[in-house]
Amino acid sequence: MAIIDSRRKGQTAHLALAHFGNDQEAFDTLYYHLVESFSEAGYHRLVGPVGLSPHLGSGLQVDGWSEWPPAHTPNNPPYAPELVESRLNPLQNGRLYRAAVPPRLADDRAGPAQIVPLDPARLADDLLPLLAAAVENPIAGFPPPDAAEAAFLLRTLAAKGLTGFLAEMDGRPAGFALVAPDEGGRLRATHGGRSWWRRVRHGAESRLLASRRPAGGQVVFGAVRPEWRRQGIATQLWRRVVALASEKGWESVAVGPVWLPKAGVSPAAALLESQSAVARQSYRLYERSF
Protein backbone atom coordinates (compact mmCIF):
# COMPACT_ATOMS: atom_id res chain seq x y z
CA MET A 1 0.00 0.00 0.00
CA ALA A 2 1.31 3.45 -0.89
CA ILE A 3 0.76 6.32 1.53
CA ILE A 4 1.06 9.82 0.12
CA ASP A 5 0.65 13.14 1.90
CA SER A 6 -0.34 16.17 -0.17
CA ARG A 7 1.72 18.37 2.16
CA ARG A 8 4.84 16.48 1.00
CA LYS A 9 4.23 16.43 -2.74
CA GLY A 10 7.54 16.71 -4.55
CA GLN A 11 9.21 14.98 -1.63
CA THR A 12 8.48 11.71 0.18
CA ALA A 13 5.90 8.93 -0.03
CA HIS A 14 5.73 5.85 2.18
CA LEU A 15 5.45 2.13 1.54
CA ALA A 16 3.00 0.64 4.05
CA LEU A 17 2.04 -2.90 5.12
CA ALA A 18 4.76 -4.41 2.94
CA HIS A 19 4.54 -8.18 2.52
CA PHE A 20 6.35 -10.26 -0.07
CA GLY A 21 7.65 -13.75 -0.67
CA ASN A 22 11.28 -14.66 -1.23
CA ASP A 23 11.20 -13.90 -4.94
CA GLN A 24 13.61 -11.30 -6.35
CA GLU A 25 11.86 -11.01 -9.70
CA ALA A 26 8.47 -10.39 -8.10
CA PHE A 27 9.98 -7.83 -5.72
CA ASP A 28 11.69 -6.01 -8.60
CA THR A 29 8.39 -5.87 -10.48
CA LEU A 30 6.69 -4.33 -7.44
CA TYR A 31 9.55 -1.89 -6.83
CA TYR A 32 9.66 -0.51 -10.38
CA HIS A 33 5.88 -0.20 -10.45
CA LEU A 34 6.04 1.85 -7.23
CA VAL A 35 8.80 4.09 -8.58
CA GLU A 36 6.83 4.77 -11.75
CA SER A 37 3.60 5.40 -9.87
CA PHE A 38 5.18 7.71 -7.30
CA SER A 39 7.08 9.66 -9.96
CA GLU A 40 3.91 10.23 -11.97
CA ALA A 41 2.17 11.47 -8.81
CA GLY A 42 4.97 13.93 -8.08
CA TYR A 43 6.81 12.11 -5.30
CA HIS A 44 10.53 11.42 -5.68
CA ARG A 45 11.54 9.60 -2.51
CA LEU A 46 10.27 6.37 -0.96
CA VAL A 47 10.61 5.57 2.76
CA GLY A 48 9.40 2.39 4.40
CA PRO A 49 8.11 0.05 5.33
CA VAL A 50 5.65 1.64 7.73
CA GLY A 51 2.25 0.82 9.19
CA LEU A 52 -0.98 2.58 8.22
CA SER A 53 0.61 5.50 10.04
CA PRO A 54 4.38 6.07 9.81
CA HIS A 55 4.27 6.27 13.60
CA LEU A 56 2.94 2.72 13.98
CA GLY A 57 4.80 -0.46 13.13
CA SER A 58 7.63 1.02 11.04
CA GLY A 59 10.74 -0.76 9.77
CA LEU A 60 11.76 -4.34 9.09
CA GLN A 61 12.93 -6.78 11.74
CA VAL A 62 16.58 -7.66 11.00
CA ASP A 63 17.43 -10.08 13.83
CA GLY A 64 16.03 -11.80 16.91
CA TRP A 65 13.52 -14.01 15.11
CA SER A 66 13.52 -16.56 17.92
CA GLU A 67 11.49 -14.18 20.09
CA TRP A 68 8.04 -12.89 19.17
CA PRO A 69 7.84 -9.06 19.29
CA PRO A 70 4.99 -7.10 20.91
CA ALA A 71 1.82 -6.30 19.01
CA HIS A 72 2.09 -3.44 16.47
CA THR A 73 5.82 -4.18 16.12
CA PRO A 74 7.18 -5.36 12.74
CA ASN A 75 7.67 -9.08 12.31
CA ASN A 76 8.89 -10.46 8.99
CA PRO A 77 10.84 -13.44 7.61
CA PRO A 78 14.66 -13.36 7.79
CA TYR A 79 14.97 -13.06 4.00
CA ALA A 80 13.05 -9.77 3.87
CA PRO A 81 15.91 -7.34 4.76
CA GLU A 82 18.24 -8.78 2.09
CA LEU A 83 15.48 -8.58 -0.51
CA VAL A 84 14.61 -4.97 0.33
CA GLU A 85 18.27 -3.90 0.43
CA SER A 86 18.66 -5.05 -3.17
CA ARG A 87 16.74 -1.90 -4.21
CA LEU A 88 16.46 0.40 -1.18
CA ASN A 89 19.16 1.90 1.03
CA PRO A 90 19.29 1.55 4.83
CA LEU A 91 18.10 4.78 6.44
CA GLN A 92 17.91 4.24 10.19
CA ASN A 93 18.30 1.50 12.79
CA GLY A 94 16.22 0.92 15.89
CA ARG A 95 16.14 -1.44 18.85
CA LEU A 96 13.38 -3.09 20.80
CA TYR A 97 14.16 -3.15 24.52
CA ARG A 98 12.79 -5.43 27.21
CA ALA A 99 13.15 -4.95 30.95
CA ALA A 100 12.35 -7.56 33.58
CA VAL A 101 10.04 -6.34 36.35
CA PRO A 102 12.14 -6.49 39.55
CA PRO A 103 10.76 -8.00 42.76
CA ARG A 104 11.66 -4.82 44.66
CA LEU A 105 10.65 -1.51 43.17
CA ALA A 106 12.13 1.95 43.60
CA ASP A 107 9.79 4.64 44.93
CA ASP A 108 7.98 5.89 41.81
CA ARG A 109 6.86 9.02 43.68
CA ALA A 110 10.43 10.29 44.14
CA GLY A 111 11.35 12.91 41.58
CA PRO A 112 10.72 16.47 40.44
CA ALA A 113 7.34 15.90 38.78
CA GLN A 114 3.88 14.99 39.96
CA ILE A 115 2.68 11.82 38.20
CA VAL A 116 -1.10 11.75 37.63
CA PRO A 117 -3.42 9.51 35.59
CA LEU A 118 -3.74 10.44 31.92
CA ASP A 119 -6.81 10.04 29.72
CA PRO A 120 -5.23 8.83 26.44
CA ALA A 121 -7.81 10.79 24.40
CA ARG A 122 -6.09 14.02 25.47
CA LEU A 123 -3.12 13.08 23.27
CA ALA A 124 -5.33 13.81 20.25
CA ASP A 125 -6.53 17.05 21.79
CA ASP A 126 -4.83 19.46 24.18
CA LEU A 127 -1.77 17.22 24.67
CA LEU A 128 -1.12 16.65 20.95
CA PRO A 129 2.29 18.45 21.24
CA LEU A 130 3.37 15.79 23.76
CA LEU A 131 2.51 12.99 21.32
CA ALA A 132 4.38 14.85 18.57
CA ALA A 133 7.43 14.97 20.84
CA ALA A 134 7.16 11.21 21.42
CA VAL A 135 7.21 10.31 17.72
CA GLU A 136 9.63 12.99 16.47
CA ASN A 137 12.30 11.47 14.23
CA PRO A 138 14.37 13.96 12.19
CA ILE A 139 16.17 11.21 10.23
CA ALA A 140 13.02 9.50 8.96
CA GLY A 141 11.31 12.86 8.56
CA PHE A 142 7.81 11.61 9.34
CA PRO A 143 5.37 14.53 9.61
CA PRO A 144 4.04 15.03 13.15
CA PRO A 145 0.53 13.59 13.61
CA ASP A 146 -2.41 15.94 13.45
CA ALA A 147 -5.50 15.40 15.62
CA ALA A 148 -7.10 12.96 13.14
CA GLU A 149 -3.99 10.79 12.86
CA ALA A 150 -3.47 10.87 16.63
CA ALA A 151 -7.06 9.69 17.14
CA PHE A 152 -6.44 6.85 14.67
CA LEU A 153 -3.30 5.78 16.55
CA LEU A 154 -5.13 5.75 19.87
CA ARG A 155 -8.10 3.80 18.46
CA THR A 156 -5.71 1.21 17.01
CA LEU A 157 -3.81 0.79 20.26
CA ALA A 158 -6.79 0.91 22.60
CA ALA A 159 -8.29 -2.47 21.61
CA LYS A 160 -6.84 -4.20 24.69
CA GLY A 161 -6.76 -1.21 27.00
CA LEU A 162 -4.37 1.67 27.54
CA THR A 163 -3.07 3.16 30.78
CA GLY A 164 -1.62 6.64 30.72
CA PHE A 165 0.57 8.59 33.10
CA LEU A 166 1.14 12.35 32.88
CA ALA A 167 4.11 14.11 34.49
CA GLU A 168 3.31 17.66 35.56
CA MET A 169 5.74 20.39 36.55
CA ASP A 170 4.13 23.34 38.33
CA GLY A 171 0.77 22.16 36.99
CA ARG A 172 1.98 22.08 33.37
CA PRO A 173 2.31 18.90 31.27
CA ALA A 174 5.98 17.96 31.02
CA GLY A 175 5.91 14.32 29.86
CA PHE A 176 3.85 11.17 29.59
CA ALA A 177 3.91 7.40 29.17
CA LEU A 178 1.25 5.27 27.51
CA VAL A 179 1.23 1.57 28.42
CA ALA A 180 -0.66 -1.43 27.01
CA PRO A 181 -0.65 -5.19 27.62
CA ASP A 182 1.73 -7.03 25.30
CA GLU A 183 -0.58 -9.19 23.17
CA GLY A 184 2.12 -10.32 20.73
CA GLY A 185 2.54 -13.84 22.11
CA ARG A 186 -1.21 -14.42 22.30
CA LEU A 187 -1.70 -13.26 18.71
CA ARG A 188 1.02 -15.63 17.57
CA ALA A 189 -0.47 -18.60 19.43
CA THR A 190 -3.91 -17.97 17.93
CA HIS A 191 -2.51 -17.22 14.45
CA GLY A 192 -3.59 -13.59 14.75
CA GLY A 193 -7.28 -14.55 14.50
CA ARG A 194 -6.94 -14.84 10.74
CA SER A 195 -9.47 -16.79 8.68
CA TRP A 196 -12.66 -18.36 9.98
CA TRP A 197 -11.38 -21.94 9.78
CA ARG A 198 -8.39 -21.16 11.96
CA ARG A 199 -10.70 -19.46 14.46
CA VAL A 200 -12.84 -22.62 14.56
CA ARG A 201 -9.89 -24.98 14.69
CA HIS A 202 -8.13 -23.04 17.42
CA GLY A 203 -11.28 -21.82 19.18
CA ALA A 204 -10.69 -23.75 22.39
CA GLU A 205 -7.05 -22.70 22.49
CA SER A 206 -8.02 -19.08 21.82
CA ARG A 207 -10.56 -19.05 24.65
CA LEU A 208 -8.02 -20.55 27.01
CA LEU A 209 -5.40 -17.98 26.07
CA ALA A 210 -7.92 -15.16 26.31
CA SER A 211 -8.60 -16.16 29.92
CA ARG A 212 -4.93 -15.74 30.81
CA ARG A 213 -3.44 -12.38 31.58
CA PRO A 214 -0.60 -11.23 29.29
CA ALA A 215 2.87 -12.04 30.58
CA GLY A 216 4.16 -8.55 29.83
CA GLY A 217 3.36 -5.00 28.86
CA GLN A 218 4.69 -2.44 26.45
CA VAL A 219 5.23 1.29 26.44
CA VAL A 220 3.61 2.30 23.16
CA PHE A 221 4.44 6.02 23.39
CA GLY A 222 6.31 8.19 25.85
CA ALA A 223 8.25 11.44 25.93
CA VAL A 224 9.39 14.40 28.00
CA ARG A 225 9.13 17.86 26.47
CA PRO A 226 12.54 19.31 25.50
CA GLU A 227 12.45 22.14 28.05
CA TRP A 228 11.97 19.65 30.92
CA ARG A 229 14.55 17.03 29.94
CA ARG A 230 17.62 15.98 31.97
CA GLN A 231 15.82 16.54 35.27
CA GLY A 232 14.87 12.94 36.08
CA ILE A 233 11.29 13.08 34.82
CA ALA A 234 11.75 10.21 32.34
CA THR A 235 13.20 8.01 35.10
CA GLN A 236 10.25 8.91 37.31
CA LEU A 237 7.76 7.95 34.57
CA TRP A 238 9.63 4.69 33.93
CA ARG A 239 9.41 3.76 37.60
CA ARG A 240 5.65 4.36 37.50
CA VAL A 241 5.39 2.10 34.43
CA VAL A 242 7.32 -0.65 36.22
CA ALA A 243 5.08 -0.24 39.29
CA LEU A 244 2.03 -0.71 37.05
CA ALA A 245 3.63 -3.82 35.54
CA SER A 246 4.18 -5.22 39.03
CA GLU A 247 0.56 -4.50 39.99
CA LYS A 248 -0.67 -6.36 36.91
CA GLY A 249 1.63 -9.32 37.42
CA TRP A 250 3.62 -8.73 34.24
CA GLU A 251 7.06 -10.28 34.00
CA SER A 252 8.55 -7.72 31.62
CA VAL A 253 7.98 -4.43 29.83
CA ALA A 254 8.91 -3.83 26.18
CA VAL A 255 9.76 -0.46 24.67
CA GLY A 256 10.40 0.43 21.07
CA PRO A 257 11.66 0.19 18.52
CA VAL A 258 13.74 3.09 19.80
CA TRP A 259 15.12 4.77 16.67
CA LEU A 260 18.80 5.66 16.90
CA PRO A 261 20.66 8.73 15.64
CA LYS A 262 23.32 8.25 12.96
CA ALA A 263 25.96 9.36 15.45
CA GLY A 264 26.04 9.82 19.19
CA VAL A 265 23.77 8.30 21.81
CA SER A 266 19.99 8.07 21.89
CA PRO A 267 18.77 9.57 25.20
CA ALA A 268 15.88 7.09 25.27
CA ALA A 269 18.19 4.12 24.71
CA ALA A 270 20.61 5.42 27.36
CA LEU A 271 17.78 5.75 29.88
CA LEU A 272 16.49 2.24 29.23
CA GLU A 273 19.94 0.69 29.49
CA SER A 274 20.49 2.55 32.79
CA GLN A 275 17.32 0.84 34.05
CA SER A 276 18.60 -2.66 33.10
CA ALA A 277 16.56 -2.92 29.90
CA VAL A 278 18.18 -5.12 27.24
CA ALA A 279 18.04 -4.71 23.44
CA ARG A 280 16.46 -7.91 22.13
CA GLN A 281 15.65 -7.21 18.47
CA SER A 282 16.77 -4.76 15.80
CA TYR A 283 14.79 -2.97 13.12
CA ARG A 284 15.63 -0.93 10.03
CA LEU A 285 13.97 1.73 7.90
CA TYR A 286 14.86 2.10 4.22
CA GLU A 287 14.71 4.84 1.63
CA ARG A 288 15.34 5.45 -2.07
CA SER A 289 15.30 8.67 -4.10
CA PHE A 290 14.45 8.58 -7.78
Uncertain segments are 204-211
Which sheet architecture does the biggest sheet show? 11 strands, mixed
What's the shape?
globular
Helix content: 25-40%
Query: What's the order of the H and E elements?
Result: EEHEEHEEHHEEHHHEHEHE
Using only C-alpha atoms, the radius of gyration works out to 20 Å
User: So what's the oligomer here?
Assistant: single chain
Q: What structural class is derived from the secondary structure elements?
A: alpha+beta
Number of strands: 11
**Tally of DSSP helical segments:** 9
Instruction: Estimate what percentage of residues fall within beta strands.
Output: 25-35%
| Distance, first to last CA | 19 Å
Mean pLDDT, all residues: 88
